[in-house]
Every structure is written in C-alpha cells, then in structure tokens.
Input
Amino acid sequence: MLDEVASQAWAKLVLSVPSQWTQRHPSVPFFTLGMAAYLDAKSTAAMPSSIYAQRSVRDASNAILMAHFEPLYDQLCHAIGQYFGVDAHLIADQAALPGFHIHLPHPVFANEVASVHRDLQFQQVFPLESFEPHEVFTFTLPISIPPGAGLNLWIEGEKQFHPYRTGELVIHSGLKTHQAALCCAGNVVPRIALQGHGVLRKNTVALYW
Output
C-alpha cells in the first residue's frame, strides 16, 4: 500500500507528536495514538460508562488523527475497498478511527510479551448488531518495523509466524487466535503500525479501532 519513502514519512509524523500519545503500560514504552476499543471500551464498577463510550472524548481523539493523517486514511479506505470490492469508509460518528500502536525499543520486547487473543471488539462497539464470521476483520499497516517483527497466528492449533513488511497492508479475520511479534529490543527501529478493524454491512465496509 505504501512505499518505503511514504512509510518513513508517516512514521516520522507519528513520532513528531508524542504529546498526543497515550501510554498503555506503566514501565515499558508501549503507546497508542488514538483510542482503541480493546483498551478503552472496558467499563468498571467505578466507571460504568467507558471512556470509549464518551462521545466528546472520542471525537477529540478522532479530530487529532484526522488533522494529521487524513491522506493516509484516504489511501487505507481505497486499498481495503479494492480488497473487498465494495466501498470502505471511516465511521467517526460511531467509533474511534483506526490508530497507531507504538512500541519504542526496549529489552522486554525481545520476548513474546504481547497478549494472545482474538479480536471481539465489534461486540463492544456495535452491541446492537450481529455479524457473521466472514463479516469482521482486522488489519495492520506497518510503517516502521524492526527485523523479525510480524504476527503469530494459530491455525488449527498450530502456531504460524507471518513477517511484516513496511508499507504492506495485512488483513486477517481477527477471530483466529493471534499475537503480535514485537521484536523491538536491541535495535533503534521503533515498531509503529496503523491498526484497526472492519465490519461488512451490506455493500460497504466500516473501519474503526
């Protein structure tokens, strides 16, 4: 989807706005730029309404992303629309825009520390809708990737590693068990990826995070 020059330019832009990042771990440099349902849609007894459900907070986050990355979103929608053969669009009025995972180099990221999981966020973001397995998916667009980084995917119980390549859009169902392979430890290359999910509705694809 992106060549090396474009990927580097977008990664540089992400790195230029650290004040807009959200730190997601207290002791290691894992951040997001933008809101993510798997992190922000959780409710507790103390906070029955999640931060993700607060429209004003979500709108503010989406506005920051759109101000910096609108051309990238246009390319993303075009690429995913071509892949599925239907119109793809963002749904900023309903959900968070696709955002960025940011892992800065740290020794712990040499290990398999990312969670092993399935992506069921659509159940939180669209609680009144139901989707068939083929109507949901996850995507990753790596724009800065250290050597060895990629995706661990379990197929029929067998772990398979799929390497990431800078600028190459990766789409998978999200419902199969998977894990990010970070490999962001002994080198100076940060791991930065545009991350999100999609749902197919009739003849359109809605993208969110």
Summary: The two ends are 19 Å apart (CA to CA).
